[in-house]
């Protein structure tokens, strides 16, 4: 169990910039013009797309399989709107394909 | 929201194993999870410690990776009524996953937000400790393809938000932008840049629509 002072300083710096980013947005309460209200309406859509798309292919050389099973999962999400079922169908199909020896 | 944990837990373990391998003590490994609580930047910091990077470089990279939380805060601050202390507390524990669950659910309360946040915070820290103690005994969980659970979970969260043609256009263009940016920018910062450009595009495409309501229409569904 050791804690080096210089490492603690780096952690505190990381904490400061991370907490700062999280807090700055939440504390800003000035009334916004309509353009920026519409801007915020698109934040989840744009950010989620940015989180999803580059993370789909992965780095194990199974990109095609993962793209196709993601499309299937998106279909399940659209029809059912149930999170666990979407993940189960997507991840399950991916594993079934893997066990069948598909590697694409 | 059970599948979200399946996505988070293996990464807490993988982070801890990486941090230990980089020469951080068990205490330091756990302290970073408690103080920073942001997966991607903790991974990159662990790697940077191993490579002997300067402290300021690590802090600046962390800022680039985490500045996207600014957008989550701006968005949440207008969705949920919060007192100042509530803003500070919910800011400390804010993550991609908690924001995702709250926005996709119809639930708009501090209690629900904090519940999502804390359940993730506790899992992240408990499994950081598990990973730090167990170390390399545990097989690399990313080999099992669990990193696939993250995009799958967010697919379930985004699909119900796509209600108009503009929504779908913004999502499609953001996806393409994110691929391009992720090749040239640090991961978290490419998400921030995409989020800004994608939302600007959405606001511009809807310029002839009447002013937006601050709240999304109530569309409670089973995400939790």
Which descriptors apply to this entry?
heterodimer; A: 104 residues; mainly alpha; 74% helix; B: 224 residues; 11 helices; 0% strand; globular; disordered C terminus
Please provide a written account of the structure.
The complex is a heterodimer of chains A (104) and B (224). Chain A is flat and about 50 Å long. Chain A has one domain. Chain A has helices spanning 5-27, 34-52, 63-80, 83-99. Chain A is built from four helices and no strands. With 104 residues, chain A is mainly α. With 224 residues, chain B is an all-alpha fold. Chain B has one domain (2-162). Chain B is built from eleven helices and no strands. Chain B has helices spanning 2-21, 26-35, 39-50, 55-66, 69-79, 84-92, 96-104, 110-134, 149-158, 165-184, 187-205. In chain B, helix 7 (96-104) runs antiparallel to helix 8 (110-134). The longest helix of chain B is centred in the middle third of the chain and has 25 residues, at 110-134. Chain B is globular. Residues 214-224 of chain B have low confidence and may be disordered. The chains are: A mainly alpha (104), B mainly alpha (224). At the A-B interface, helix 1, helix 2, helix 3 and helix 4 of A face helix 1, helix 2, helix 3, helix 4 and helix 5 of B.
